Each structure stands twice: as C-alpha cells, then as structure tokens.
Amino acid sequence: MKYNIALVPGDGIGPEIVGATVEVLKITAGKFGHDFAFNTYLAGGSALDEFGVPLPQETVDGCLASDSVLLGAVGGPKWDAVPNHMRPEKALLGLRKALGLYTNLRPAAIQPALAEACVLRPDIAAKGFDLMIVRELTGGIYFGDRGRNEAGDAAYDTEAYSVMEIERVARRAFETARRRKGHLTSVDKANVLETSRLWRETVHRLGETEYPDVRLDDMYVDNAAMQIIRDPSFFDVLVTSNMFGDILSDEASQVTGSIGLLASASLGDSSRGMYEPIHGSAPDIAGKDLANPIATVLSAAMMLRYSFDLAEEADYIEKAVADVLSEGWRTADIKAPGQEDWLRGSEMRDKILEKLV
Ligand code: NAD
C-alpha cells in the first residue's frame, strides 16, 4: 500500500528526531512491502523565519493532502519575543483546527527495562503499567465563554459539552480499548459538575449499545489523580474532558520519568491524524546529537496503528525499541546515574535500525 506522510520537523531538535524516524519508517516499509512517500513542510519558528508566519498555507494544504502527519516540535528562545499571534506554538493549534482533530491519545507506560527511571515506589513500578489517556481536545472550559466583571475583580470560565462532542471522543476511546486490553475508565467529576453527569450518561449509553464487549468503569478525577500514582497498573484506557485530560496526561507522563520516550496522537473523524512526541524542541541540546529519537519513533508506530491500521508493523517498531532498551542502551536523558556507555541520538537511531533490518 502507498501512504503519503507529511513531515513537519519544526524547530530545535525537531529535524533530528523526525529524520531518525523517517529512517525507521523506510526500513519498516521495505520489510512489509509498503510504499511510504514523504513531503516536508515548515511550521513554527522555522516557518516564521522563512515565510513570516508560523503556519504557512502551504503547510496546511500539504498536511490536508496527506494520509497522516508526523510532527517534531516547535518553538525556542529565538522566537520568545514575537507577538502572541505569531508565536511558533500557534502552528500546532492551527494544524489541529485545520485537520479537525478533537481527540488526543497519550500513552504512558513503564518499560520493564526502565523501571529504575520511574518516580514511583519501586514495588509499584515493578508491577509495570501501560495506560492510554484519551483526552477531548477542542471543547470544555478551555474554549468556553469567559470574562471579567467591570471592576475586574471577579472572573469566570465556562465548561460546556454537548452529547455530540462527548460521543465522538468516547467512540475513539472505546475503539482504542478494543485494540488494547478492553478496559475503559471514564474520568469525570459527576458528584459536582452537570457537564460530568452528561458525560457519564453519554459514555454509559454508548457502552451499553455499541461497545458491550468493553469493560467500562467510572472514576472521579481526584481519585484518578491518586490512582495514577498509587496503582497505575489498574488502568488500560482512560477517557476524559479537555482540562482533566490535560492535567492527568502530564501527571501520567511524569511518573514514567522519561520524557524522551513518550508519544502522542491527535485524531479527528477521518483516519488522518497528527503524531508527535510529547516533549518540546529542546533548544538546549539542539544540534548536539543528544536528542533521544524514541518518542518520535513511537509516535510513528502509533501512526501506523491508528491511521493506517498496520498493527503488525507498529508492533514491529515498538518491539525494536523495547529490545534496544532491554539490552541496556540509553541516551543521555535516560541513562542510569554513573552510566558511561550512553549513546548519542544518531547512535540510538542506528541501534533501533539494526533491530529492524
Ligand atoms: P522541552 O520538552 O523541549 O525540554 C525539557 C527538557 O527535556 C530539556 O532539558 C530537554 O533537553 C529535554 N528533552 C526534551 N526532549 C528530549 C529528547 N527527545 N531527548 C533528550 N532530552 C530531551 O521543554 P521546554 O524546554 O519547556 O521547551 C522548549 C521549547 O519547546 C519551548 O519553546 C516550548 O514552547 C516548546 N514546546 C513545544 C512543544 C511542541 O511542539 N509540542 C511542546 C512543549 C514545549
């Protein structure tokens, strides 16, 4: 099969990690008889320098014409002083909007080989965990009506959700659970918030009518925040609103202790998605061959799984990464204290490629 992949490397370490990931995708395509075609587009600070805007129309059109988008990261101190509407990060919001992406998938897993990096108690980390947070991305309090009174000494923000908005993200979550262990936890604050009560009713109706094979339970968000630390192995897939998901996904990623390993996907109605590492453009290490490419490589594996339905190919890449890690190979960001034989970014790329050929 032929797939057109739009590459948006962005700024800082973006080009390094996206470049490494393209090599991984090329080898995987050859191995499984696919044809991946790549087109590269500018966004963020690099687009600002070249075209005077953070998200050129050419980039939007190229991404819309592609089967999926692989993004590095945008931003850096060089563009910190530009006016707000020109900030590199505006490119991310603009792309999400143009591509109609309303769901964010963020896995957080502890690879057995990296249990020592986990910030949790060793007995909890030793049990391992592999959870996926499905977050609503375009609704809720971040997009609701807001304001201040005339005196400026009182303010409000509004949380609003429609059944349609809840259903579409919940469907993604149920489908995701079906591809994994078949367990979905819906996170809300239904003891207090009316939007959460609608959320809960809607998710349950869908579960009963369309996904009876998925085990569904509910959890209040305050409890979920505790359980991610106390017993993360309980979770398979979590689905939640924009703000709760924002907070819980950062919490879950931090407990793994390895920002350079964490992938993410943003999805909408079509199979086209945007896949990117959760970390930023790491300007402090850009150009020094220190960037860990694994988060981007795992983002590409998610693209194969969720946009192209190539589960075997995704497993193949994920296994290559897990094997390299279980052999003890580390980049500087995940090395054990005192470990001398750590790899540069390009060396980590080559270790992964060796497993794939
Ligand atoms: P960051 O994630 O870029 O870096 C945080 C720390 O983690 C740094 O020490 C960095 O060196 C390290 N790090 C990050 N990714 C790494 C990797 N792959 N390998 C090894 N080490 C890695 O966050 P920041 O420093 O707060 O932000 C830097 C820039 O990135 C800012 O301009 C910010 O706005 C932008 N940013 C972009 C995105 C995005 O594009 N999605 C997300 C977050 C931050």
Descriptive tags:
357 residues; Isopropylmalate Dehydrogenase; ten-stranded mixed beta sheet; 12 helices
Structure write-up:
With 357 residues, the protein is α/β, with parallel strands linked by helices. It has 2 domains: 1-101 and 272-357, Isopropylmalate Dehydrogenase; 119-255, Isopropylmalate Dehydrogenase (3-Layer(aba) Sandwich). 41% of the residues lie in helices and 19% in strands. The chain is built from 12 helices and 12 strands. The chain has helices at residues 14-32, 45-51, 57-64, 90-98, 122-126, 163-179, 194-210, 221-230, 242-256, 294-306, 311-326, 345-356; strands at 2-10, 35-40, 68-73, 103-109, 130-136, 146-148, 155-157, 183-188, 215-220, 237-240, 263-267, 273-277. Strands 2-1-3-12-11-4-5-10-8-9 form a 10-stranded mixed β-sheet, with helices on both faces. Strand 11 (263-267) and strand 12 (273-277) form a beta hairpin. Helix 8 (221-230) packs parallel to helix 9 (242-256) and helix 10 packs antiparallel against helix 11 (311-326). The longest helix has 19 residues, at 14-32. The chain is globular. It starts with a strand and ends with a helix. The protein binds nicotinamide-adenine-dinucleotide (NAD). The site of nicotinamide-adenine-dinucleotide (NAD) has 22 residues, from loops.
